Amino acid sequence: MGVNSALLEWSKRASAAKERSLFVGNLSNDVTEEMLRVIFSEAGAVMNFRLVTDRV
């Protein structure tokens, strides 16, 4: 996994904002919070995080 160029560009434009939210869906059940923090930290500081999983 890596951060694509569209996400990096969005991050640059949003850097002046105080707060942004991002929804990411269709993730494998194997994906962990730590994995996502590492990936998204490439685009900037991750201030808050919520990993919601399906009830199965």
TrEMBL record:
The UniProt record lists the keyword tRNA-binding: no
A GO molecular-function descriptor: mRNA binding
GO cellular component terms given for this protein: mRNA cleavage and polyadenylation specificity factor complex
Family annotation (PROSITE patterns): RRM (PS50102)
Keywords for the protein's UniProt record, in alphabetical order: RNA-binding
Pfam families: RRM_1
UniProt keyword RNA-binding present: yes
SUPFAM superfamilies found in the cross-reference section: RNA-binding domain, RBD
Signal peptide span: none
InterPro entries: Nucleotide-bd_a/b_plait_sf, RBD_domain_sf, RRM_dom
Domain RRM: 20-56
PANTHER family: CLEAVAGE STIMULATION FACTOR SUBUNIT 2
Name by which UniProt lists this protein: Uncharacterized protein AlNc14C181G8217
Annotated organism of origin: Albugo laibachii Nc14
Species lineage: Eukaryota, Sar, Stramenopiles, Oomycota, Peronosporomycetes
Name of the coding gene: AlNc14C181G8217
